[in-house]
Amino acid sequence: MTIKLFWGSRSLVCGFAGAVVLALAAAAGSPAWAADKAAPAASGWNPQAAARYLDAREVYWQGWDRAQKDHGTLCVSCHTQAPYGLARPALRGPLGEQALSPSEQVMLASIEKRVRGWNQMQPFYSDAVSGAGKEVESRNAESVLNAVVLSSYDQRQGHMSDTTRTAFDNAWALQTTTGPDAGAWVWQNFDYTPWESKESQYHWAALLAVTVAKTPDNYRDDPRIAANLTALRAYLQSHYPAQPLLNKVVALWADHYFPGLLTARERRQLTGGLERLQHPDGGWSATDLGTWKRRDNTPLETRSDGYATGLVVLVLEETAANARIDPHATRGLAWLKANQDKDTGAWPAWSLNKNRDPQSNVGRFMSDAATGYAVLALEASR
């Protein structure tokens, strides 16, 4: 197994274990990477601090015993690794980096290893340990997450890698072909809102549509996936009315790249609803984007958070008519710039499932996603 390390040539090769050592060393403060260097905040927020937080959280995930999987690989988590894989490449330019951070190296090495050895890899969860159906759920979910993360890196390089193409092939092979959910993927469901629960299937199907549209080399026009995209579009259209607002936001994003997923009336209703839900401080709360109920019956946090605000602003930016920034997105950007934690570099967000300690590692999962989407929204505004 080899790992491609450098962002430009990506030619340096080392072993997987060596990359893990590098990442852990970086977390301890050596070597000095761009994200570790002191620099003034840019445009009201600090990309260096955001990168430090994201890298440190990725190193934590890589060292957590529950993230360890077969063949020395790692679980691709919806809340930590997926947002990291989307956001961290976006910070390359602002940080002046010429190479991947050590924690990125480890993440990509693990994903690429699983993609290339797909038929030899065990699902993240087994039916025997986690319950009936969990093997299929985790296998389907992983196939989509692998494609989403790998494509994120290809987008910055302007070329689709062979490994990314294989990841998409793995995902298309698992796409549901019959029944009411044809066109989607059976998703991992542990009743953890919003990424590992009943509504997650639609969320990630819509996000994969966005990913396909952004993948380089005109991948969306590949005739070999035409039938897959047709099925995916049909699923997103037919299941849209029943979705929580959170999923409808991602559907609006997909509609921008695949016009016709939403009707004009659906778009107006959605954007109008988002405008009404914007808080006076300019942010949005994930609590308002669905009908959620915590498993421990504690009250949901209603303050503006980085996840809802980052996602809504990002989608409003990318779908703005005539490339004009939506005034509601402008207010959301101001909230994001004002609410990055100056000490940690993260944006706040709170669990929709339990009243978790936001300073605990598990309690930070929502902030991991919040920071990823805040970075994406802020970078898209440049």
**SSE-based structural type:** mainly alpha
What Rg do the Cα atoms give? Answer: 20 Å
Strand order of the largest sheet: 1-2
Strand/helix succession: EEHHEEHHHHHHHHHHHHH
Distance between the termini: 38 Å
Helix fraction bin: 40-55%
| Average pLDDT over all residues | 90
Given the structure, what is the number of helices? 15
Give the CA-based shape. globular
Enumerate the spans where pLDDT stays under 50 for 5 or more consecutive residues.
1-34, 37-42
How many extended strands? 4
Strand content: under 5%
Major pleated sheet: 2 strands, antiparallel
Report on the architecture of this protein:
- The protein has helices at 16-27, 47-63, 81-87, 92-95, 102-116, 127-130, 134-157, 162-174, 200-214, 226-239, 245-257, 264-277, 306-318, 327-338, 365-380; strands at residues 3-4, 13-14, 68-69, 73-74.
- It starts with a strand and ends with a helix.
- By secondary structure, it is mostly helical.
- It has 15 helices and four strands.
- Among the domains are: 1-122, no CATH class; 263-382, no CATH class.
- A two-stranded antiparallel sheet has the order 1-2. A two-stranded antiparallel sheet has the order 3-4.
- Helices cover 51% and strands 2% of the residues.
SSE layout:
Layout: E1 3-4, E2 13-14, H1 16-27, H2 47-63, E3 68-69, E4 73-74, H3 81-87, H4 92-95, H5 102-116, H6 127-130, H7 134-157, H8 162-174, H9 200-214, H10 226-239, H11 245-257, H12 264-277, H13 306-318, H14 327-338, H15 365-380
Antiparallel strand pairs: 1-2, 3-4
Helix pairs in contact: 1-2, 1-5, 2-5, 2-15, 3-7, 3-15, 7-8, 7-9, 9-10, 9-11, 11-13, 13-14, 13-15
